């Protein structure tokens, strides 16, 4: 039986249980914006425009992903995900961040690899590559009373510099929870067989979009002083290119020019861009949290 979820303000209907998404809390009779269902998926697209080792694309609207241990997944038109899962595949991986990013690219929006925290009336995106500490820093700010509205994927409407609110559920590795002084025993696993857990920050926002004030690019270092610097102009836009989620598939879907234009528009609209260097340790996280909040006063 299909279940309905809130997917950044859209109604997503899925035949698979998606623990990282919050249940749909809108009208039961609302039409589904996106459907995820089980179906037979061919091993190849018909006359693909781009072929890579694990994915193929056709035009701007078809993306086929083949993953050993998971199966074949076809994302079409930004509103349909067809899953041909291998026996024993973990359903929790079906709508992972990368596949979500493809959906948003197809819908003409800009997904960055990051988590989002709302401070007052302003959204701050914490962006970076895997293991940069995005979710961990978001948890630190949540502990200070600020609302987490997205994890792992920050979806931006670049025309109006707005962030689409997603889920307030953070996915954290066990060692990150330990650094935060949190227990994993009472938490659900984010994926079967992995020491990654779902932390519900418990803050619900009725607003589906928030004004984006700042983007912070995180980088991890083994030791050293926690430090932040502001990036400006072309340097800021160039740095943002590195955190566009699924940039190569987006290019294959002919989204490259739109992505460049969108990033440039954000910088021109006054969204500030920062680079924050964080080292290991709980004290470093608290310092990073203070610096992250300080960008709104700069």
Count of helical regions: 7
**What is the third-level CATH name, the topology of the largest domain?**
Rossmann fold
Structural class: alpha+beta
CATH class category name of the largest domain:
Alpha Beta
What are the low-pLDDT stretches, counting only 5+ consecutive residues below 50?
A: none
Biggest sheet strand line-up: 3-1-2-4-9-8-7-6-5
**How many β-strands, per DSSP?**
20
Distance between the termini: 50 Å
Q: How many structural domains are formed by the residues? A: 2
Radius of gyration: 19 Å
Shape: globular
Q: What number is the mean pLDDT?
A: 90
Order of helices and strands: EEEEEEEEEHEEHEEEEHEEEEHHHEH
Biggest β-sheet, characterized? 9 strands, mixed
Q: Classify the beta-strand content into a percent band.
A: 35-45%
The amount of helix comes to 10-25%
Q: From the 3D coordinates, which CATH architecture of the largest domain would you assign? A: 3-Layer(aba) Sandwich
Summary tags:
298 residues; alpha+beta; Rossmann fold; nine-stranded mixed sheet; five-stranded mixed barrel; 7 helices; 20 strands
Report on this model:
The chain has 298 residues and is α+β, with helices and mostly antiparallel strands. It has two domains: 3-106, no CATH class; 110-297, 3-Layer(aba) Sandwich (Rossmann fold). 22% of the residues lie in helices and 36% in strands. The strands form three sheets. The protein has a nine-stranded mixed β-sheet with strand order 3-1-2-4-9-8-7-6-5, covered by helices on one side. It has a five-stranded mixed barrel with strand order 10-11-18-14-13. A three-stranded antiparallel β-sheet has the order 15-17-16. Helix 2 packs across helix 7 and helix 4 (233-241) crosses helix 6 (256-268). The longest helix is centred in the C-terminal third of the chain and has 13 residues, at 256-268. The relative contact order is 0.14. The model has no long low-confidence stretch (mean pLDDT 90).
């Amino acid at each position: 039986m299909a279940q309905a979820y809130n997917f950044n303000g859209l109604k997503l209907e899925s035949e698979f249980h998606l623990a990282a998404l919050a249940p749909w809390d809108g009208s039961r009779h609302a039409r589904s914006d996106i459907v995820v269902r089980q179906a037979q998926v061919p091993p190849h697209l018909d006359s693909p425009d781009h072929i890579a080792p694990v994915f193929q694309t056709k035009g701007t609207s078809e993306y086929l992903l083949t993953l050993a241990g998971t199966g074949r997944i076809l994302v079409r038109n930004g509103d349909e995900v067809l899953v041909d899962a291998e026996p024993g595949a973990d359903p929790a991986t079906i709508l992972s961040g990368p596949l979500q990013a493809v959906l948003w690219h197809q819908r003409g929006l800009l997904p960055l690899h990051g988590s989002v925290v709302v401070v007052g009336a302003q959204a701050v995106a914490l962006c970076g590559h895997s293991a940069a500490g995005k979710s961990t820093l978001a948890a630190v700010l949540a502990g200070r009373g600020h609302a987490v509205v997205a994890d792992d994927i920050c979806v931006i409407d670049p025309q109006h510099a707005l962030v689409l609110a997603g889920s307030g559920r953070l996915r954290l590795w066990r060692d990150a929870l330990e650094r935060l002084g949190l227990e994993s025993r009472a938490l659900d696993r984010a994926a079967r067989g992995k020491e990654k857990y779902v932390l519900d920050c418990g803050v619900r926002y009725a607003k589906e979009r928030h004004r984006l004030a700042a983007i912070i690019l995180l980088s991890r270092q083994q030791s050293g002083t926690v430090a932040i610097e502001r990036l400006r102009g072309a340097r800021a836009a160039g740095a943002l290119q590195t955190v566009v989620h699924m940039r190569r598939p987006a290019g294959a879907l002919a989204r490259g020019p739109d992505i460049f234009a969108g990033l440039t528009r954000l910088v021109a609209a006054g969204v500030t861009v920062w680079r924050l260097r964080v080292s290991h340790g709980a004290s470093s996280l608290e310092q990073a949290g203070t610096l992250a909040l300080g960008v709104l006063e700069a």
